Every structure is written in structure tokens, then in C-alpha cells.
């Protein structure tokens, strides 16, 4: 397990690979007893007490207030040093012990070798660690809890000046409990899945640039279990309809509240509907000529379309005449708002390629900075720059950060797919990186696009190897604990 030294960062790998070089810090993140400030007054950092009934960590002053409130009169408030192993500690132990030993696949971790600083199983003890100093995982957790109680005040002091520590501590302390599980693979005949939007939990519209068409897929999620992994299902998709032709050449797609498909092609935003004879009709919503739309997103809260625009051919060398903006247009194609400059009159975008509306009325934009790098920018509806996410730690991303799509979970976490590093970056609403998940560890080689369904599952569209005879896959992922 590899952990960043900053408390508002992340667990870079949610799995445990046998090594546990920073076990104490891991427990600090996972144990709900560790709060940077008192959970009652939100100010004091001199934390000494814990209410076992309402599960709050409190300071000396609030301990007396808490005890005098009639509603809490029967609650048990104890000193840190008297705290037994609670439900969170048991969850930590269960999380560790469910992982298979890296050497003995049929065994799970039950011990910790103090000599080698490794998680080990019973077979490991017999083979290599019989004369070493080792302990049960539960024993080590208990010892670490007592140690944390003694060092909690210095821990709080060390990080009290950390930016946005309140939101970061809420997001990060239980991230060890987060688990990405690939539950279903849906095969397609498409060479690539560049853009996708889910019409419902079992239907998607797919934009394949190689095929220069939009395909309506029925996602068969009944399928069958694979022989390799019994928890994962595999099935084939069914092409219900295809929108193609010389004049189509779609660049991005979205759907409105009615379930109608919209896409951008050439200089236009187009709407796809069915007439009374169930024939496909395509009408223009807005012609942006001479500007060229690069991406589109439907904001259901405002019932508008957000479109990323550039002047002519895209270029990363900007001049005074360059135009890079995001505009909001209504269903009739009328311009309602535009975002282009900061309050200091600096350009917001180099090349906007993806847009997503987020909680509290904001928007996130993937901005392509060069041919190989990008960033994520967040704005409020007034156009003020809230935060920028770029240059993640080299320990996580050896290649340049290259975001290609983003979506939001039901818990308002932002998931960004990084194609260059084949990984998912999970951000909190403040733009802090709180978790990093390798797609390769999930068996997903070339992730390109994302969407979440109404049930909270994450869907990932991919490209396939140019030498492969198989089509690109769609992957359904269950995220626990996020």
C-alpha cells in the first residue's frame, strides 16, 4: 500500500499487496476516532473524549456540555485510552483479512510480521517467518489505536494549516473501505467507444469516431458468469438503431430529459427524434458557424445545453484573435450565457473537450492544454474559477495527465478517467484528489469515456487494440463505500 504524506490526498491503491509500510497512517485515515477538530464545537483541536453512542470525538469543554444535555444523558463518554475496538476497527480488520496472500492464493492475511513489515498468512509463518516477531492483525490494530490516542494532539497540530482540511478529512478517513468491483462486461462490434451516454440502466447511445456514427445499444446485463472470475458477467450488446451517413460525423453526444438524442457535427448542434411512423428525423438546434463546437452536455437542472466552442481548426498556440469558450443555449438554440475569461480577464480555456454540470450549480470542463496533457477546471454559474485539477503526483501518474471524460456519483464525487495513465481520479467537490484507482487492476486496458446510471453503477467505454479482431467493450463497475 502506498500513501501520500499529505492527509488530504489519497490511498493510491485500494488493494493490499502484502506490504504495509505506513500502517499507523492508514489507521489514522480509516479510524473515525481521528478527527482534526472537535465534532461538536468544530474549533478545538485538543481532543480527549469519545461518545460511543453518537460516535463523536469531542474536546474537554464539549464533554461537559454533551453530558449535561438531557437527550444524551444515557450516553457513554470515554477517554481515548479506554476505547474498545469499535465497529470501524472491525471493518479495518475485515478489509485487510479478506485480501488473498500474494504468495499463497488460497490463504488470506491474518498476521503482521513486525520484523519484515509485511502482512502474512499462516503458510507464510511456516515457510519464512517462524522465528520473526509477528502478531495477529486484530492485536496490531488495537495497539495502533492506543498509540493514536497518545499522538492525536500532535497529529492534529501537524496538519491544522492544511488547506480545506475539514472537507478532506471527511472524504479521506474511510477511503480504505472504498472498493471498485467490475461486475459486468458488455461486448460490442464497434472499433472504439469515444463518447457514451446512458438513456437508462440497460440502454446507451455510443459515438464511435472510427465508424463515424452513433449507435443505440441495448445492454444485455443478464449474461453468464465467466470461468475466470465468478463475480463477473459477460454478455453481448444488441444494436437497436444506428445514425450514420456522410453528413453525420458526430463529435459528441448527450440526451435531454425526454430521452431525445442530441449531437454536434460540423458547426451544428442537432436533435434526433422519431416521427409518427417511427422514422428518424434530424433537425438543427443551433448553427454556431463560423465557430466550431467541440463538446456538448445537457444540464437537466437548468434545461440548457452547454457547448464548448473554438474558432475554426483547433490550435494550442493561442493568439489575441483566438476564441475558446463554453456557452449555454436553450432548447430553441438561444444563447443564455458564455464563459471565456476569469474576473482578471485571463483565458479560462485552451481547448474545451468535455463538459459536465456538477452539484451546487457549477460546471466542470476538461481543458486540453496540449496534444498530450489536459486539466479539469471547475466554474460556478457566475463564471468564477473555483479550482483547477492538474499535475497529479508522479508516484501515481508516471505519464502526463490526459483526462478524456468525467462524471459524478450519487454522493457528489467527481470521477475523471485518465487515458494516458489508465486510471480513475476521484475528486471531492472542492477539487481535491481523494482516491486513485488503476483501470488495469480492474481488467480495463484502454478507458476513454464514462457515465453513471440511475442505480449508481459506473459505466466505462474503451477503445481496443488496432490489431485486435474483437470490438470495444463496455464495463459496468460497482463502487462500494464512496
Topology:
Elements: H1 23-30, E1 47-51, E2 56-59, H2 60-68, E3 77-79, H3 87-97, E4 111-113, E5 118-120, H4 122-129, E6 134-136, H5 137-159, H6 165-172, E7 179-187, E8 195-200, E9 203-208, E10 213-218, E11 224-225, E12 233-236, E13 238-243, E14 252-255, E15 261-265, E16 268-274, E17 280-287, E18 291-299, E19 304-311, E20 324-329, E21 335-339, E22 352-357, E23 363-368, E24 374-379, E25 385-389, E26 403-408, E27 414-418, E28 423-427, E29 433-438, E30 447-452, E31 458-462, E32 473-480
Parallel strand pairs: 7-12
Antiparallel strand pairs: 1-2, 1-3, 4-5, 4-6, 7-32, 8-9, 9-10, 10-13, 11-12, 14-15, 15-16, 16-17, 18-19, 19-20, 20-21, 22-23, 23-24, 24-25, 26-27, 27-28, 28-29, 30-31, 31-32
Helix pairs in contact: 1-5, 3-5
- How would you classify the helix and strand content by structural class? mainly beta
User: How much beta, percentage-wise?
Assistant: 35-45%
Our Rg estimate from Cα atoms comes to 26 Å
What is the CATH architecture annotation of the largest domain?
6 Propeller
Q: Give the full name of the CATH homologous superfamily of the largest domain.
A: TolB, C-terminal domain
Instruction: Give unreliable regions as ranges.
Output: 1-36, 148-177, 223-231
User: Class of the largest domain in CATH?
Assistant: Mainly Beta
Q: In one word, what is the shape?
A: globular
Give the domain tally: 2
Count of alpha/pi helices: 6
CA distance, first residue to last residue: 19 Å
Task: Report the mean per-residue pLDDT as an integer.
Answer: 77
Task: Enter the CATH topology name of the largest domain.
Answer: Neuraminidase
Number of strands: 32
| Biggest β-sheet description | 6 strands, mixed
Helix content bin:
10-25%
How is the largest sheet built, in terms of strand order? 11-12-7-32-31-30
Domain B box-type: 33-80, 101-137
GO molecular function: zinc ion binding
Protein name: B box-type domain-containing protein
InterPro entries: 6-blade_b-propeller_TolB-like, TRIM45/56/19-like, Znf_B-box
Amino acid at each position: 500500500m502506498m500513501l501520500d504524506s499529505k492527509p488530504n490526498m489519497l490511498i493510491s491503491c485500494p488493494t493490499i499487496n502484502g506490504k504495509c509500510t505506513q500502517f499507523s497512517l492508514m489507521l489514522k485515515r480509516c479510524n473515525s476516532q481521528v478527527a482534526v477538530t472537535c465534532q461538536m464545537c468544530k474549533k478545538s483541536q485538543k481532543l480527549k473524549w469519545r461518545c460511543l453512542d453518537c460516535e463523536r470525538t469531542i474536546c474537554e469543554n464539549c464533554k461537559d456540555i454533551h453530558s449535561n444535555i438531557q437527550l444524551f444523558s444515557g450516553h457513554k463518554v470515554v477517554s481515548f485510552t479506554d476505547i474498545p475496538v469499535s465497529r470501524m476497527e472491525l471493518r479495518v480488520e475485515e478489509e485487510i483479512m479478506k485480501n488473498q496472500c500474494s504468495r499463497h492464493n488460497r490463504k488470506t492475511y491474518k498476521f503482521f510480521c513486525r520484523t519484515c513489515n509485511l502482512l502474512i498468512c499462516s503458510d507464510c509463518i511456516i515457510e519464512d517467518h517462524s522465528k520473526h516477531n509477528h502478531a495477529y492483525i486484530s492485536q496490531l490494530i488495537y495497539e495502533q489505536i492506543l498509540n493514536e490516542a497518545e499522538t492525536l494532539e500532535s497529529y492534529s497540530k501537524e496538519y491544522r494549516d492544511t488547506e480545506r482540511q475539514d472537507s478532506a478529512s471527511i472524504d479521506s478517513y474511510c477511503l480504505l473501505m472504498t472498493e471498485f468491483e467490475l461486475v459486468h462486461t458488455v461486448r460490442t462490434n464497434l472499433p472504439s467507444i469515444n463518447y457514451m451516454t446512458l438513456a437508462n440502466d440497460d440502454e446507451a447511445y455510443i459515438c464511435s469516431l472510427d465508424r463515424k456514427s452513433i449507435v443505440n445499444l441495448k445492454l444485455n446485463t443478464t449474461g453468464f458468469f465467466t470461468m475466470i472470475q465468478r463475480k463477473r458477467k459477460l454478455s453481448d450488446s444488441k444494436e437497436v438503431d444506428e445514425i450514420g451517413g456522410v453528413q453525420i460525423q458526430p463529435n459528441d453526444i448527450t440526451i435531454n430529459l425526454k430521452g431525445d438524442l442530441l449531437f454536434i457535427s460540423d458547426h451544428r448542434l442537432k436533435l434526433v427524434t422519431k416521427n409518427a411512423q417511427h422514422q428518424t428525423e434530424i433537425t438543427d438546434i443551433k448553427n454556431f458557424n463560423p465557430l466550431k463546437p467541440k463538446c456538448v452536455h445537457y444540464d437537466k437542472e437548468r434545461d440548457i445545453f452547454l457547448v464548448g466552442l473554438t474558432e475554426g481548426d483547433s490550435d494550442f498556440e493561442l493568439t489575441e484573435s483566438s476564441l475558446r469558450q463554453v456557452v449555454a443555449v436553450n432548447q430553441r438554440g438561444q444563447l443564455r450565457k458564455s464563459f471565456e475569461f476569469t474576473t482578471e480577464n485571463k483565458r479560462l480555456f485552451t481547448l474545451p473537450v468535455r463538459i459536465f454540470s456538477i452539484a451546487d450549480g457549477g460546471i466542470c470542463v476538461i481543458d486540453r492544454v496540449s496534444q498530450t496533457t489536459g486539466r479539469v477546471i471547475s466554474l460556478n454559474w457566475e463564471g468564477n474559477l473555483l479550482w483547477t485539477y492538474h499535475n497529479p503526483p508522479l508516484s501515481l501518474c508516471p505519464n502526463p495527465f490526459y483526462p478524456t471524460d468525467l462524471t459524478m456519483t450519487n454522493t457528489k464525487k467527481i470521477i475523471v478517467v485518465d487515458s494516458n495513465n489508465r486510471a480513475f481520479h476521484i475528486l471531492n467537490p472542492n477539487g481535491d484528489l481523494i482516491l486513485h484507482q488503476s483501470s488495469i487492476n480492474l481488467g480495463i486496458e484502454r478507458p476513454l469515456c464514462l457515465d453513471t446510471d440511475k442505480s449508481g453503477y459506473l459505466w466505462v467505454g474503451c477503445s481496443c487494440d488496432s490489431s485486435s479482431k474483437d470490438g470495444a467493450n463496455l464495463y459496468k463497475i460497482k463502487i462500494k463505500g464512496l
